[in-house]
Task: structure prediction
Amino acid sequence: MIKPDSEFEQQARTRQAQLTKPPGALGRLEDIACWFAARQRRAIPVPLVPAITVFAGDHGVTEEGVSAFPSVVTGEMVKNFARGGAAINVLARAIGARLTVVDAGVASPVGDVAHIIHGKVRHGTANLAREAAMTRDEAQQAVALGRAQARADIAHGANLLIAGEMGIGNTTSSACLICLLAGADAEAVVGNGTGIDASGRAHKIEVVRRALKRVEKKTWDDGIDYLAELGGLEIAAMAGYYLEAAAAGVPALLDGFISTAAALTARAIEPSVTDWLLASHLSFENGHRIALEKLGLDPLIDLQMRLGEGSGAAMVVPILQAALKLHAEMATFTEAGISEKHD
Result:
């Protein structure tokens, strides 16, 4: 696994100290520039070229009544992505990002829709409250699908990768993974998902606890086992996407609750993957902060979003671009002929 280069980070920090501003005056924007310097191996990082891939998959656990929407909505939203009508389409256009949609395991027929990569591993997962969501081989196929898409996005020139998702029921799967991998209780992790009420949330907590009870005596070999038992096909693909980004030395910007569940499973497969992950925002969904803390990541913004699709990450890209532009284009005290602070 490629490691970030601390020498370039130090060069960037030296430059930050010479720019025409009080030390630390730009707050975390300074840290962002230095973070990218270490990963681009440049004292002055080049502008970001973002790529967004939305992975879609259905979840058998919807049989338990954990979502406010029927599972057919997954396929309908995939078609909406392909037509350019979803929030992530708007945001991708706004930031100039290439957007790809991947069917990793949508249950309903998507059809021969243009602009969709058909990588379906199976037609949705099994009901994780009652049995393994998928086989280990299927989980590995989904991870490989995500890895392949990361390679494709990098080959098209991206130097920042964003994974989004669509899958009715995936907050239940993600809650299971976060509870298990972060050592947290379902009460603290489970949220309202797509908009269930208080009684619906209480039921969802019970479903998550049943799933966790089912696997409590299982011996876990690696992160693939977590995905097979409790994951989703789109979540496994996202984990693969993050793993390949790290292997290629390309930063990945996390989105919300589901993306951090994928990141936790990716870390269970390869611990150093977190060196290449940056947290974009704090989701309004319960448990997101718990997952981020377990990953050792601090979100940049909190807009109380919980849409998914990669939307929160896309919102942060202009902030990242501004941080790099300030780092590259501000004058130093010497260039501007301004006296520096006395020691």
In short: The chain has 14 helices and six strands. Strands lie at 50-57, 98-105, 116-118, 160-166, 252-254, 277-279. The mean pLDDT is 96. The first helix runs from residue 6 to 18.
